[in-house]
Amino acid sequence: MRRLKKLMALDAMRVLMGILFVILATSIFSRYFLTFSNIGSVLKSQAIIGIMAIGELFVILLGGIDISIGAVYGIAGTLSALLLDAGLPAALCVPLAIACGILIGWVNGMLVARLRMAPFIVTLGTMGIVRGVNLILTGATSRSISDPSFLAIDAGSILFIPLPLLLLLAFFILSDIFLKETVLGGRLYAIGGDENAARMLGIDVKGIKLTAYMLCGALAAVGGVIGASKVSASYPLAGNGYEFEVIAAVIVGGALMSGGKGTVLGAVLGAIFIGILKNSILQLGISQYWQQALSGFAIIFVLIVSTRVARVRES
Q1: 186 neighbors 260 (Cβ within 8 angstroms)
Q2: The predicted structure's pLDDT at residue 261
């Protein structure tokens, strides 16, 4: 166990070193990169990905995956816009949008845990369903949002710190405590490490899987609410492709797709790394089409390293 903790700490350190390397390398060629406004903008933008990555981490720790998070992100923004148009206050719209994400996570969890269906296939199906429902609700058109209290979710700040970053910090602290200090958090690692052994020890594998998918759906919806507040509108295809970036952040942060390994710190640092990398590409004048390609290269590289780490753990 101590060796595993050391390996996870090294994963976070590697990501942090990668972030510093990209920052230093880009700042040599672009004087506008290493500025307070630019770095602050990147961190604020990646707060959404970081929050969603924390939710995805819970699922990946179990050896599962949820690729419906981008669709949940989109429909959470749409529901917020529709409910606001109906005259409901933002204080009620936001919890209802998050409840929708929890419901979708519950469906995913039931199909994966109770019916033992493949997580990739299940969440691929729910992604299509949720995307379709979103298109039906919006009529394939965007809806603007003008409610000041809702827009304050992204535009507001406390002590000059943007609310999205404060929300990311809050979820980071709560999730880190949950995984490190609670019995349920420890059982997530146990199930991901060896599900059959966990089941023989009397751990409620099905119930914990269900909880993990519900948490993932909830945090994806939180990201959708912040995203809708950020652009002052909801779009029928909002969040399209976010599942790739979120999963990339978790994997780059040191989590294993086979489960049993990963940290909240690693997932958040992975999100920041990808954001810094994308911004550096734009600052250097490189085509933005390279963003996804470089993210893919980063995932493959980290998977190679993670595979070797997994073999060390097994030995």
Answers
A1: no
A2: 85
